[in-house]
Amino acid sequence: MSTSPSPPDSGSYAIAGREEAAAARLQLLAAARYKLAIYLPALSPDMLGSPLELAELRRIATSGRGAEIRLILGNPNAALRMGHRLIDLAQRLSTAIQIRMPSDEETSEATASSAWLLNDTDGYLFLPDAERLEGRAALRDGPGQAPLLLQFERIWERAAPATQLQPLGL
Description:
It is a single chain. The protein is an alpha+beta fold and 170 residues long. It has six helices and eight strands, in the order βαβαβααβαβββαβ. Residues 1-5 have low confidence and may be disordered. This is DUF7931 domain-containing protein. InterPro entries: DUF7931 (IPR057691).
């Protein structure tokens, strides 16, 4: 049983460790309505791969006409070789889940190691170093989310589609 206090409804709070990061991801996914923006340098087996997280991702992807999950993934080939369950979901729901790779000029040292998840209710999870799983999260913090969303949009516009992840139409 976790002894950490529940996160506040507004404002950011600190995240430290695998369990807190997983709990924050699940809360942000559950709070999302139609849209997600996710930036990951690499997709580890436990990142967005639990049955609860995948169920929330499926719910968002099938939530209606405006459903959109955009994922910028630093190494899509590794996720494909690993057989990550998110890749399978993205291939089955390819109209709602889009995966791109950052361009070389967009992969600065600062963004190459960071990870973030943004939802459409002003929630976010930001990890300056994705390997360490320490950062901050908020369920509702528009001013805190805004710079992350702007940076995501800038990287997304220059990112290339991860064509190696598209299902074969045989």
